[in-house]
Write a structure and sequence with these properties.
Shape: elongated
Number of strands: 2
Strand content: under 5%
Distance between the termini: 13 Å
Order of helices and strands: HHHHHHHHHHHHHHEE
CATH class of the largest domain: Mainly Alpha
Helix content: 55-70%
Radius of gyration: 23 Å
Number of helices: 14
Structural class: mainly alpha
Strand order of the largest sheet: 1-2
CATH superfamily of the largest domain: Fido-like domain
Number of domains: 2
Largest sheet: 2 strands, antiparallel
CATH topology of the largest domain: Fic-like fold
CATH architecture of the largest domain: Orthogonal Bundle
């Protein structure tokens, strides 16, 4: 947690690129996160992906006015399925006996310790959980990261909705962390960080859920997986900021050449000159400057020379790095 908090302090202290550029990055992250969340969920139709992207962006931009109360949770769930006619039946409503009954095969075969409560118990359990979260954050007895992780563990154990519980868990993670001061979150995809280590993340979640009702529950597997996903996200944010700061120092020609490399995967002296109307010598000087700045890497020699984006830009936002 100390490592995660150090990054938060680093973020608060660095100069930021222009607001318009940051807004572009935020919008791109929302779309990327929706695609990654769909990949985790599996076979999510495009309308739900669009609803997730819109709802996540609303969280990014309006989290200060979104206390994580029950009404807000239901509204966020409805937002996910805003463009999905098939999801309209259960959007913004807890699951009911009519939607998911105790005869559901997966529910019957699931170990007792991992079973979600029956639909009739969900409203009261969500009311209790929401009150618990508010009191813990208000009293400040425990670190907000620990409170958030414990809340999400319980939310994902209750699974209050007929569909979209995982996506809601990821939305709520973004909302809780933003409200706890982790303002860097919109500039890196938490969903991508989770998807990259999904198997370990899911197994840690289930292991901690299995012990949550024991006399001495152990949520450490889940807590470590939760913090690991944040460290992965923070590395991505650090690289994004490094790239944005390099962009600020670029000339118009340099920025245009870099955009060609991003769009096509690589750029050559000939393609840069042709597309931008530059002389071959000017294009060469521009490519050499971008290589010297570390914005491009040179491959090949002679006429076969081409330039690509660096695979892993060197960047260390805080001492010690991330494990």
């Amino acid at each position: 947690m100390a490592e995660v908090e150090r990054f938060r302090g680093w973020w608060e202290g660095i100069p930021k690129p222009p607001e318009a550029r940051m807004t572009q990055v935020l919008a791109a992250v929302a779309l990327e996160s929706a695609a990654e969340s769909s990949r985790i969920a599996g076979r999510t139709p495009p309308p739900e992906e669009a609803g997730y992207a819109e709802t996540l962006r609303a969280v990014f931009e309006g989290h200060a006015g979104m206390p994580p109360e029950e009404g807000r949770i239901l509204a966020l769930h409805e937002g996910i399925f805003r463009h999905s006619p098939a999801g309209g039946r259960h959007a913004g409503r807890y699951k009911t006996a009519a939607a998911v009954g105790s005869t559901d095969r997966r529910w019957v075969m699931e170990p007792t310790a991992l079973r979600a409560p029956g639909p009739l118990l969900i409203p009261v359990q969500m009311e209790i959980l929401s009150a618990w979260l508010a009191s813990r954050l208000r009293e400040k007895e425990f670190h907000p990261l620990l409170v958030s992780a414990a809340y999400l563990l319980e939310f994902l154990a209750i699974r209050p909705f007929a569909d979209g519980n995982g996506r809601m868990g990821r939305l709520l993670t973004n909302l809780l962390l933003l409200r706890c001061g982790h303002a860097y979150l919109p500039y890196g995809s938490l969903e991508k960080a989770i998807a990259g280590g999904w198997t370990d993340y899911y197994l840690a979640l289930r292991k901690s859920q299995a012990s949550r009702n024991l006399p001495r529950p152990d949520i450490s597997p889940w807590l470590l997986a939760f913090l690991d996903s944040l460290r992965v996200l923070q590395r991505a944010v650090g690289k994004t900021m490094s790239r944005l700061h390099r962009e600020r120092a670029l000339s118009g020609n340099q920025a245009a050449v870099l955009e060609i490399a991003r769009g096509r995967g690589e750029v050559t002296n000939r393609s840069a000159a042709a597309e931008l109307g530059l002389s071959r010598e000017t294009a060469k000087q521009t490519l050499n400057r971008l290589t010297a700045l570390g914005a491009l890497r040179r491959l090949g020699a002679g006429r076969a020379t081409r330039y690509r984006l660096p695979e892993d830009p060197p960047y260390r936002p805080f001492s010690g790095g991330a494990r």
